[in-house]
Structures are given as structure tokens and as C-alpha cells.
Amino acid sequence: MSIGWPTLGVEVKVVDDRGLEMPLGATGELIVRGTPGWTLMKGYFKNPQATAEAIRGDWFYTGDNVQWGEDGFLYFVDRRKDMIKRAGENVPAAEVEAVVNQHPKVLESAAIGVPDEMRDEAIKVFVVLKGGERATEEEMVEHCRQHLMKLKVPSFIEFVEDLPKTSVGKIQKHILKRVELEKISHARQDGKLI
User: Fold this and answer.
1) Would you say residue 102 has pLDDT above 60?
2) What is the rounded CA–CA span in Å between residue 89 and residue 75?
3) Are 97 and 125 in contact (CB under 8 A)?
4) How many H helices and E strands in the chain?
5) Of 101, 105, 99, which is closest to residue 135 (Cα–Cα)?
6) I want to staple 116 with a disulfide (CB 3.0 to 4.6 A). Which of 26, 32, 41, 122 is the partner?
């Protein structure tokens, strides 16, 4: 779904990591220029470091990956921090989650990138099944194979009772990532002891 088009009083661009504008249909970060305190925020409350990272020159870097559509509308792809780097390609976690969530047994899911020595990151999906349902990792992976490019098919599926969320119901992926990195760290330490 489209997130609309720019409103009056602001200028928007879709840029790559170097700040160069992306062509129509290509994914890049949404940046916005407007009047601070009027059409654009002045900064983060009591957080000058976050303000300096987000506001560069006259531009606010939103952290959202979007695409310009041929219809002149902007289309949300994913949060930049939720992109999974796999074999040199950026995989939107939201795209993987949308496919997993289409499975009739799935209530919700969260996809993250985990370290992979061969391909930058592997895709791991945490899946919450609907009440009373049972499924296997192979069943979920096969479902993904039918609906995603090979590069975007998860390497790992973990079934969980629930996902960590904020008070407004947003999934806290940073907690999932931290727990995964701790597991990997402990596994490596255990391997060194052998």
C-alpha cells in the first residue's frame, strides 16, 4: 500500500547509502526537508546524538526504506534497521513476514538477520501459531519457497509462544536479535572449551 505523496511545505527524496537519488521503483531511504519546528521536527528531546544522526544539513533521514511508484506515490518497504543483508542483497524483513503470516496456521511472525559466515546474514523467523495449531519448520520453509525468491527463504524457523512487544503492540526485534547474538556467543565459547 502507498504511504501517499509529499505534502505541501516539504521536499522528499529517496536516496542510497551515499545520498544519491534513486530511480523510480528502486528502494532507498526516505529523506525529508522542511521547516524545523513547523513541517519538520527540530530534534529528538534531550538526545543531541540521535538528532545529529537523523538530521544532516537540511535533511531529516527517516530510517524508512521506500520506493517511488510510477503513479507518483511513495511505497513503504521496511525500516532500514529491519533489512536483512543476505549475500550482498538487502532483504526486507516485512516481505518475509508477510509471506509467513499468509500461512493459515500462523498468527504472527518476526524475521531477523543472524550472522552467517558465507552470506553476511541468514534469515531467522520467529513464528507464533494460532491456538491449537501445530506445524513443522520444514512446512514453513516449503511455504516460503513457494512464495519467495530463493534468496529470501528463511534458513531457520523457531516456534515461540509470543513475541516481545512494546506497550502499543510493536514487536521488539532488537530483543530477538540480542537474544540470538547471546546464544551464538555462548555456543562459540562452548566450542572453544572443547
Assistant:
1) yes
2) 19
3) yes
4) 4, 11
5) 105
6) 122
Tell me which of 51, 80, 109 is where a domain ends: 80
On whether both 39 and 94 belong to a single domain, the answer is: no
Q: Which residue has the cell 566450542?
A: 191
Query: What span, in angstroms and rounded, lies between the C-alpha atoms of 166 and 66?
Result: 24
**Beta-carbon contacts of residue 144 (< 8 Å; ≥ 6 apart):** 96, 99, 100, 152, 153, 154
Residues 34 and 114 in one domain: no
- pLDDT tens digit sequence for 39-96: 888 899 999 999 999 999 899 999 999 999 999 899 998 888 889 999 988 899 999 9
Interior/surface letters 29-44, b for 16+ CB within 10 angstroms, e for the rest: bbbbbbeeeeebeebe
Structural domain span for residue 159: 87-193
Tell me how many degrees the CA angle 142-165-93 measures, rounded to the nearest 5: 35
- What one-character DSSP code corresponds to residue 148? S
